[in-house]
Amino acid sequence: MSGTEKAVQGVADTLREFWAHRPVRPRAGRKLGGVATGIALRFQIDPVIVRIAFVALALSGGVGLPLYLAGWLLLPEEGDQVSPLESLLHKGHSSASSSTTVFVGILMFPALAYMFGENGGFQVFVTLAAAVACIYLLQKNRGHLQPAATLPDPATAPTPPVPGAPAWDPLGAAPFAWDLPEPAPRPQPPAPRPRKSRIGATTLGVAVLTVAASAILGAWVPWFTVAHTIGLVLAVLAAGLLIGSFTGGGRSLIWLMIPLSVAGFALTAVDFDGETRISSFDDKPQSITDVRDRYETSVGSVHLDLRDLPDTGEVKTAIDVELGEAVVRVPRDADVTFRCEASSIGELDCLGKRAEGSSVAVDGRDLGDNGEGGLKIDLDVRSSVGEVRVLRD
User: pLDDT per residue over 341-390, tens digit each?
Assistant: First the structure.
């Protein structure tokens, strides 16, 4: 047998061992179906880490949802003989009803359709391969551990005390001495204070050094942008959280990761071109010459009121808001040609045409109450993430 064949056989044996000693979904301490908690108890890691992993997989093209549903179907619940799916196939008893199992199985179809439909086969294959690799590494390195919470063995259960026996003779071995006074308890030495884990402070220190190094390198290397720096810091915090799940500690890092993740999403979802500006415009021009050719901001809002313009002439302007709100109010009788767009995600309401969601756009021409004639307005209104409205009132 070649080295490659031996490696493949070793991986297969490890995965078979995982299935033979698969996690059990507990009834207590779980948030949903107990899949994440069961995996955490089986391999003695922090349940928060497993839950974060499922959320990350769900955000990575929706892979986490069918994996979680598969875990619910294939992992037995505490006290059951087999998993819900095996019980449906009459291989043993499970506390899950057949109707519930069928319902969860039906949910797999839209979950899989979304997963493959949104991302294509390659990304799904890579993400699933990464999930299988994580299971393999857990089984390989921590499969020998006993679950963190197990039921007591009746054979080793302590013998119940004899009724009426004093605390110093619970088995009733010396009933002739039961009238003697209870012995004074020995003073117990104070319990040693648990050593506080330093993983949290160490990780924060590394994160600060990462920010400082990125700021210095950013003067020479264009790659070190704000978004990339946040990504590096999140990677450091995630590594600290992972190490803390094995050594104890570091859970407070989650509260720093949440706002950084939101900021990282905003910076990557919004296409900031050029210099980032945080500003708002509230303009109400009185003449056509007062109207700018373009209103733009990176973060903020643009409110443009054109209702005081003359009844004749032509106006053409564009509004570009990366993150925020764009609102244009036009005269009641003006002829308006408009194009509205939310390039990443947002909500559009432009002279009766509405749309919301990811990468949406509407356009059209509205002649107002008096039909064609009068002031002509040409609008191009865009927001990357936010709300776009063109109103006639």
Answer: 988 778 899 998 999 887 889 999 998 878 888 899 999 999 888 899 99
Longest dimension (CA), the chain: 116
Is the separation of the CB atoms in 77 and 28 below 8 Å?
Answer: no
- The CA-atom distances, in angstroms, between 384 and each of 167, 230, 353, 359, 381 are 73, 20, 18, 9, 10
Please, are residues 65 and 75 in contact by the beta-carbon 8 Å criterion? Answer: no
- Cα(24)–Cα(82) distance, integer angstroms: 10
Q: How many other CB atoms sit within 10 Å of the CB of residue 239? A: 15
Residue range 137-176, pLDDT digits in tens: 878 887 777 776 544 444 444 556 556 566 655 655 656 5
C-alpha 66/C-alpha 49 separation (Å) is 19
Rounded Cα–Cα distance for residues 181 and 249 (Å):
46
- Global pTM value: 0.42
Q: Classify strands 294-305 and 353-366 as parallel, antiparallel or unpaired.
A: unpaired
**The length of the chain, given as a count of residues:** 393
